[in-house]
Amino acid sequence: MNILVCIKRIPATGGKVSLTADEQEIDTRHLGFTVSPHEECAVEEAVRLIEANGGSSAVLTLGAEVSTEQLRDAMAMGIDRAILLETDGREWDAGSTAAAIVEAVRADGMNFDLLLFGNEAADTGDYQVGIRVAHALGLPCVTGIKSLEIKGGGAVAKREASGGWDIFEIPLPAVVTVKEGINLPRYPSFQGRLKAKKKDIARAKPQWNGNQMEKARLKIPKEQEHQVEILGNGPGAAPKAVEVFQKLGLFQK
Amino acid sequence: MIIALIEHDRGKLNESSLEMLTLGRGLGLPLHAVLIGEAARPLADRAAAFGAATVHVVQHERLAEYAPEAWAQCVVELIESLKPEAVLASGTDRGNEVMAHVAAQTRLPMAANCIEIKLGNPCVVTRARWGGSLLEEARLNGSTHLLTVAPLAVEAVESPARSPTINTVTPTLDDKVFRVRVSGRVEAGAGKISLAEARVVVGGGRGVGSAEGFKPLEELAELMGGAVGCSRAVTSLGWRPHAEQVGQTGTRIAPDLYIACGVSGATQHLIGARGSKHILAINTDADAPIVAAADYAIIGDLHEVIPALCAEVKKAMA
Amino acid sequence: MSSLPNQANVVIIGAGIVGNSMAYHLARLGWKDIVLLDKGPLPNPGGSTGHASNFIFLVDHSKEMAKFTLDSVAQYKEMGVFTQSGGIEVARTKERVDELKRRVASGKSWGIDGLHILTPAEVKNLVPFINEKIILSGFYTEGIGTVDSLRAGTIMRERAQAMGALTVFPKIEITGVDVENGRVRGVRTTQGNIKAETVIVCCGIWSPRIAKMAGASIPLTPAVHQMVSVGPIPLLAEKPGEINYPIVRDVDFNSYERQHGSDMEVGSYDHRPILMDPDDIPPIEKAALSPTEMPFTQDDFDPSMERALELMPFLGEYGVRYAINGLLSLTPDGFPILGETPEVKGLWSVSAIWIKEAPGIARAVAEWMTAGNPEIDPSGSDIARFYDHQKTWTHIRARTAEGFNKTYGIVHPREQWASNRNVRLSPYYEREKALGAVFFEAMGWERPQWYESNAKLVAEYGERVMHRRNEWDSRWWSPIINAEHLAMRERVGMVDLSAFAIFDVTGPGALAYMQKMCVAQMDVPVGRVVYTPLLNDHGGIKADLTVMRLAANQFRVVTGAFDGMRDKKWFTDHLPADGSAALADLTSAWSTIGVWGPKARDLVQSATEADMSNAAFPFGTCQWVDFGPIRALASRISYVGELGWEIYVPFEQAGRLWDTLWEAGRQFGVLPVGIGVYGTTARLEKSYRAYGNELEQEFNLVEAGMLRAVKPQDFIGKAAYLKQRSEPPAAVLCSLTVDDNTSSSGIKRAMMGREPILSLDGKPLEDKHGRCSYVTSAGSAPSLGKTVLMSYLPPDYAKLGTKLKVEYFGDHFPVTVAAVGPTPLFDPENKRMKG
After folding, report:
1. Whole-model pTM?
2. Which of A94, A120, A235 sits opposite B300 (nearest CB)?
3. Is there a catalytic annotation at residue C485?
4. CATH no. for residue A154?
5. In a designed cystine with A85, which of A62, A149, B42, C137 is the match (CB 3.0 to 4.6 A)?
6. What is the number of structural domains in chain A?
7. Nearest-CB residue to A189 (from C286, C298, C316)
8. Are the Cβ atoms of A228 and B294 closer than 8 angstroms?
9. How many CA atoms lie within 13 A of A102 on its CB side?
């Protein structure tokens, strides 16, 4: 089978985030880059499915030249080839991103059985690129998947629902957006890195047609002022904690 | 006019829809609610109680089970007939999913997880990015604005009750929109409290030290009738299953009390714990971010503190 | 937590391994009321200590660094945080095979044992997962190991607290340093101000920023060292414990592989130098990991990854679980930056220090702060060593970038820096260039090492020139040096000595002050030149220099370029508080030409009307002499053992004087002579000691054989000096000659210094203080036709004619003690110089 995974380069935030002076981006001066956790799992899932079922995998991203770093990371994990839809680095909204991906999928000539996405990107949280791609390509789409099995000509996908699971049986080809937890992604190995380094990256420059949703500016939400009450040090603080539990009414059934 | 998609599962209301209605009724336009499937009809009164003047009940024999594309098709038909200014849904998995299908089909822009909405053309929204740790002010250009409302962004408040006008519609749904539908369901284990719905969550971080280290946390959770959670570091280390992960890419919890043990408090984790009404941090480092984010803290080694807590809780409950 | 005091005896800024070590050692030495601050949390405040790979290799070519390391290991062991694993440096090239032998020799010189050269098979035996096929040899040191540096820091902090000497305040940031009249008065912090007369900057990569707040310089730059952790590897996880296999340094590719539990840490210094601006280091709250763990840049690491895979193929299949661009401190000369800043009294730097040497350095600095006499001489790391130009960003960036890839490099002892040259040019520079000078750098000065225009002399002197057939021995060297030497001893040479540091001490209290500073009698007639050592309070040798008494209240001090700024601080620190003596730095005002050789008097006399005869101008005196329109100060002394003068001339007239002397010298066969002769060959033939080689704080004047009558006046270190004189020396500085330079491969070799001296049965010689004998200086002595070595020998061996050995690149060469004490090998009665 043939699988395409779509990923996006995002800053690896960890500490306090600050913005650039024009309030358009996160200040990435001190930050490295990665992909969303969901997408990392999508890459891992693609690698596992190909390992199990045979076939070929490709990874695609839309972004500036620097995004090749993330494509190579994916190839280091075991993806066979990579496609860069090169932009000038500006943010494309979900609609234009999906359109560019659709065009690239059509141009690629490969008949993908599965298009994997993260459920949503960690940075923009749009929740819609995969679905838009599915519609444009006329494919079925399941989202938020945390278990995926290939069975016959189709797939069985599971997603969490109020403590249990909803099960979807879908025909292939299909678009599946996955969530972290579907697997535990591997770390790229030295060998994987070296292989990835030697691979070519296919490139295309999609046409920029403007965003329907325009980012005016980013804001850092105001931190809610609140005081922490230190109940004490060590096990001696336990009685005081239980007093708090009672005050909060936690022991009332 | 604004139409608001009420989220339910086989007739069980998802409470965040009420937050969405509360926000929607303040936007200055008549608010219409949409209930998909006959099973949802009884929810019309709740919708009205939270501000919906008109409720559209979509009736179709194949809508008993959730099917995202079919739901979207219903909304699309309503958009075509009602030409609303905006469509609202909750920023939940299903809400975002249905709305994205609507957006894909209509080629309209969609803004997910809004916390503030100013209708108009363009429509100006403030929406959550990075799980809410960053906000974006965005402008949407489109005939109808497709917006989902971030959970917990507004408090659900009832409006003076009115009896709603009920309008039953029957959509035309072809087979294609049922390509993807829930075909089976595994219910949550009996007696097991789901993390997302637990009143008490006992969460462990890297500071727990090992998979075995979670034993006392499990005991405390059980004593208090709660669920065990953990940080992303812990699932990455393989100590606990991902289903227990609290965070931006795990479960968003909303308990009355979250007891965070040996959790440093990375942004990704705090996003998932934000819905907690109270947080008690147990940590050796008084300067850890989780302590700053907490309401109560015990500074100390969780391996000593938790057994003492268990003992005290037992005493209190006896 | 107690609240921040508004006063302290000493404030230590930075709670990494260095700050904690400082707190402990100061407390141990009786300091009280110490406050330790850090802007980060404890126990890991986010500096370089927190991400260090924490392993310790023992051998370093620098004695100072090796001794700091050995002392640190002893301290870590005492704290119970050291795990001995052994360590191997592997050679992939023939040149490295030799270098490893040289490292063994350095180890022996510093008294390290358990050093072995291994075959590839023997390496494989210790490290079963290594690809032994690509290595040629290994240098195994048994005593190498790893430490828990965070734990060590906590232990030391807690010990100081238990002594009641220390209070610790994490998460407090320094916002300013108060300075009044050149003295530190306290620090300002985010939580209030603390008054303190002593402030110690232990902030690693942040040290320059703190120093700048006080108006001082700590010339270092943060730079990236890449490190990844690969695992989990079942083979490594098999045995319990953090480390079960020797650490491997793949030195030819500037990288290492170090087991850490089930993972292998691979670190590299092989990538392009990635220097940071200290202001670009993220604040703690904005850093994804910690401020010193910057985002990894994969492309930079790729070549190292390939090399690691060649050496340890099994690494290929495991995941990279952690990868950082870790920040560490680099300095322009690679040495730490220790001591009180010359700019601000009471402000101390203990910066640019690695885990391996931190506790040892802290002990030395604490001793320095307490009694002024560290057991391990920290002169090479003294912050006072820097000239102003070496504190500029241009210099720091240039030299750290150049030095970075030499981290594990094979650095020749004479190797010259390529970057940021031509900073300090003497007035003769263009003339020297025209004469084919090959310039070596001395603290920014460009000094001719030899002159290609003298090449023809090589043939002229034929067999007497001591050629070097080995490439290493002849690197950064020329046989012309030998030829210049021989020609100078027959004719007359002119030597550019502009790099001298020159200070004038003036004022009504000048004499009393100079008496206090100097061992030699300073109450001499005006016009006398005195060579004198300077001691510290404990009789350690602090400096050696010459002083000219120019007037009743004026003394001119002349010292070497390498020691100039350190000496200046020593002098300045001791100036009388009443202002009765003042010191002026005239280094850039006065240039110096040395004119020496049998024809020196003829030359000088023909250029002046002054009487230059021995009667009119005896040895050891100075006079103002007019050379045409130029009035210069001539001083009749010599470091080369020949008749002649050092002639001091104002910079702007120096070119004219050079031309005058040069013209006058033509008829006497004058030739330009480089520092190769001045600093090595001629000096060694005369057994003259050099500071930093023979002379240092660890040795005393008795051992150095520099005894003279003790003056009645008091001077610094006198009591200790008198005591030293009353006891037999532990070692005696001797001159040795190499009996046969032929190596095992049949080539004549030439030692360069720092080699171990061994007994005839190949054992290191150790004196009663535990110091091993090593070569302090080495060089050809063309007038003697021999290679001359100087070395401190235990008294039993310090006897004329004693046969010993010197180890050089694994070979042992026979040597004979040729002089005990200061007796020159050449012209022992100094007839040439004094005639």
Report:
1. 0.91
2. A235
3. no
4. 3.40.50.620
5. A62
6. 1
7. C316
8. yes
9. 18
Chain A contact present for C117, CB below 8 A: no
- Catalytic residue among C245, C256, C461, C774, which? C256
User: What's the distance, CA B152 to chain centroid?
Assistant: 8
Domain that holds residue A28: 2-204
Catalytic residue among C252, C270, C377, C544: C544
Smallest CA–CA distance from C171 into chain B, residue? B287
Q: Enumerate the residues of chain A whose CB falls inside 8 A of the CB of residue B178.
A: none
Return the structure tokens found at B62: 């194949």
Please report, in tens digits, the pLDDT of each residue of chain A (253 residues total).
999 999 999 999 877 889 999 999 999 988 999 999 999 999 999 999 999 999 999 999 999 999 999 999 999 999 999 999 999 999 999 999 999 999 999 999 888 999 999 999 999 999 999 999 999 999 999 999 999 999 988 999 999 887 789 999 999 999 999 999 999 999 999 999 999 999 999 999 999 999 999 999 999 998 777 789 999 999 999 999 999 999 998 886 5
Residues of B in contact with A216 (CB under 8 A): 124, 136-139
Judge whether C549 and C633 are in contact, CB under 8 Å.
no
**Whether the complex's predicted ipTM surpasses the cut of 0.85:** yes
Q: How many CB atoms sit inside 10 A of residue C796's CB?
A: 10
Which chain C residues have a beta carbon less than 8 Å from that of A17? 286
Mutation site for C-interface testing, chosen from A20, A47, A187 by largest number of C Cβ within 10 Å: A187
Q: Least CB-CB distance to A212: which of B96, B142, B295?
A: B142
C272 in any annotated domain: yes
Tokens for A24? Answer: 């358009």
Whole-angstrom CA distances from B232 to B194, B229, B271, B301 are 18, 10, 12, 20
Measured in degrees and rounded to the nearest 5, phi and psi for residue C488 equal: -65, -40
Q: Nearest Cα to C724, choosing from C744, C706, C740?
A: C706
Flag whether A40 is in a domain: yes
Full set of structural domains in chain B with CATH? 2-178 (3.40.50.620), 195-317 (3.40.50.1220)
* Residue A171 falls inside a structural domain: yes
Measured in angstroms, the CA of A90 and the nearest CA of chain C are apart by 22
Count how many pairs of residues, chain B against chain C, have C-beta atoms within 8 Å.
4
Task: Answer whether B124 touches A (CB < 8 Å).
Answer: yes
Question: Is-contact C52 C44, C-beta < 8 A?
Answer: no
Q: Do the beta carbons of residue A124 and residue A47 sit within 8 Å?
A: no
Residue A246 lies in a domain: no
* Best A212, A213, A226, A229 residue to mutate vs chain B (most B CBs within 10 Å): A213
- Domain presence at residue C643: no
How far apart (Å, rounded) are the C-alpha atoms in residues B227 and B150? 24
Q: What CA–CA distances, in Å, run from C753 to A25, B149, C544, C795?
A: 58, 77, 20, 21
Question: Domain for residue A234, yes or no?
Answer: no
Mean pLDDT for back-to-back runs of 10 residues, chain C (835 residues): 87 98 98 96 91 95 97 98 98 97 97 97 97 98 97 97 96 96 97 97 97 97 96 91 95 95 94 88 84 91 94 95 94 97 98 98 98 93 97 96 91 96 97 98 98 97 95 97 98 98 98 98 98 95 97 98 97 97 98 98 97 97 97 97 98 98 97 97 96 94 94 97 96 97 96 97 95 97 97 97 98 97 94 92
Listed by number, the residues of chain B in 284-313 with a beta carbon closer than 8 Å to a beta carbon of chain C are 285, 287
Asked if the C-beta of A163 comes within 8 angstroms of chain B's C-beta atoms, the answer is yes
Question: Which CATH number goes with the domain that contains C276?
Answer: 3.30.9.10
Question: Please, which residues have CB within 8 angstroms of residue C16's CB and are 6 or more apart in sequence?
Answer: C38, C45, C47, C48, C49, C50, C153, C202, C204
Question: Which residues in chain C have their CB less than 8 angstroms from residue B285's CB?
Answer: 41
Structural domain of C298: 77-147+222-328
Query: Is C256 annotated in the active site?
Result: yes
Task: Name the domain count of chain C.
Answer: 1
